[in-house]
Amino acid sequence: MDSNANLRRIPSMDALLKLASASNAIERFGRPAVTKALRTIVADLRNAIREGRNAPTGENIVAAALARLDADDQSTLRPLFNLTGTVLHTNLGRALLAPAAIEAAMVAMREAVSLEFDLDSGNRGERDDHLRFLLCKLTGAEDATIVNNNAAAVLLVLNSLALGREAIVSRGELIEIGGAFRMPDIMARAGVRLIEVGTTNRTHASDYDKAIGPETGLILKVHTSNYRIEGFTKDVGARELAAIAGRKGVPLVNDLGSGTLIDLTRFGLAHEPTVREALNEGADIVTFSGDKLLGGPQAGFILGRKSLIEKINTNPMKRALRVDKIRLAALMATLQLYRDPDRLSERLPTMRLLTRSQREIDAQAQRLVPVIEQALNGAFNVSAVACESQIGSGALPLATVPSAGLALTPIESSGRALATLASALRQLPMPVIGRIERGSLVLDLRCLEDETGFVTNLVGVDLSPKGWSDDEPS
Ligand SMILES: *Cc1c(COP(=O)(O)O)cnc(C)c1O
C-alpha cells in the first residue's frame, strides 16, 4: 500500500475519541489533554508513514497517547530505596520522619490551626512559641527561634548580630558544604566582613585575641562537617573561645551543623557534641539543622541568649526565612519524642536505621541473595558482604557504622556492566540506588526496612544484560 493510502487509513480525531479506550483515558486525564496527546501521536505518525511505515489501528494510537500521558503524569520526585549506605543522604532527602511527625503534619495540612493564635487569651500568638518551650527544656537554652534550614539560621544570625561589622572565623573552619554553601560567600551576603584568623591547620587563642576590636560583631565557630584536618593541628576549643569572647564582650556563635540533642554514645555511635554541651561550654548562640541527626523535617534552629534571640527575631529577614505550619507541626512531634530518649531508637527512623545491628542486616542480606540472583539471571555474582555505612550530612564525618549488604559483581568484567546495572536498578518501578565500589555494585541494606516491597519490586524483572533494552540510557 502506498503512503497516501496509509495516511487515509488513520482514523479521524472523532473516531479515535469515540473508542472505549479513549473514554477511559478521558476519564483519567480529561478531554483536552487526551485530544492534545492524540494530535501529537497522529502528527508523528504521519511523518513515519511518509517514510514508509504502515498505519497502526486506532486502538494502537490511543494506547500510545495513553502511554505518553502516563509518563507525563509521573512525578519526578520519586520514592526510592536508599541503599547507598549513607543514612542522611542530602540528595535523597535526608531524615525520614517519624509516624507521629507525619501524622501531625497531616493534621496541620488538613485543618486550620492555632499557628499564631493564643487560645487562652484569644489574642495573636507567636509562631515560634510552639517550639520554644520544648527546645529550651531539651537543651537548657534561654530562648530559641526557628527558620527554614541551618543555612538560613547562619545567614540570619550573622546579619542580625554583625551587619556592617566583622565576624572572626578560624581559617581551619572556612567550610564549603556543597550546594554552594561557602562560609565566605554567606558572610558577604549577610553584610558582614570576614576576618580570618590562624592558618589552615593551626589556630591559637592569641589569634582570636589579637583580631578582636571595636568593629567585631561576633566570633563564629563552625563544625567542620565534611572534613578533618589531621596531623600538626591546633584549634581553640569552644570553652576557651567562650572565655575570650566573654572577656571582650563579643558574642560567640557556634554553628554545630548537624547538631544532636542526645549523646550518641548511648546508641554505640561516636561522640558528637550535643546542643546542651555547646551551650554549657559558653556559646551565646548555637545553630543546627532539623533534618540531619535530629531526624525531623528541614529546619534551622537558633538557640541561646534571650537578648540575642530577640534581636534576631526583630530582623525583617526573619519573616522571609520562617517555617510553615506543616513543618512546625512535624518538628514539634519529632522533638516530643526526645522526651523519652530510651525509645528513640524505636520511634525515630534516623536513630532506628543508625542503630540496626550488623548481624540483623547481614541476616537480611543472606535472605535477599537468591532474590537478587534470580533477577540478575546469572550475569553477576551475588554475595552477602560486610560494609560500612556513613551517617551523612556532615555528622561525624569520619565515623562509619558496621553494616552489611549485597555485592553484585559482573561474571565477565565488561567495562560498562556496572554502570548499566546501576542504571537498570534506577529504572525499576521503585528505583534502587546503591554505590559502585571496587568493581562491584554494593547495596548497603542498613536503610532497607520494607523488605517485602523490595522483593515485590523485583518480581519478574530481568536485570541481566539480556534484559537490558537497546535504548538503555547511559
Ligand atoms: C549542614 C550544615 C549547614 C547547612 O545546614 P542545612 O540545614 O543543610 O541548611 C551549615 N553548617 C554546617 C556546619 C553544616 O554541617
TrEMBL record:
GO terms for molecular function: L-seryl-tRNA(Sec) selenium transferase activity. SUPFAM superfamilies: PLP-dependent transferases. One of its GO terms (cellular component) is cytoplasm. It holds the Pfam family SelA. InterPro entries: PyrdxlP-dep_Trfase (IPR015424), PyrdxlP-dep_Trfase_major (IPR015421), SelA-like (IPR018319), SelA_trans (IPR004534), SelA_trans_N_dom (IPR025862). Its EC number is 2.9.1.1. The keyword Zinc does not apply. PANTHER family: L-SERYL-TRNA(SEC) SELENIUM TRANSFERASE (PTHR32328). This is L-seryl-tRNA(Sec) selenium transferase. It comes from Phyllobacterium sophorae.
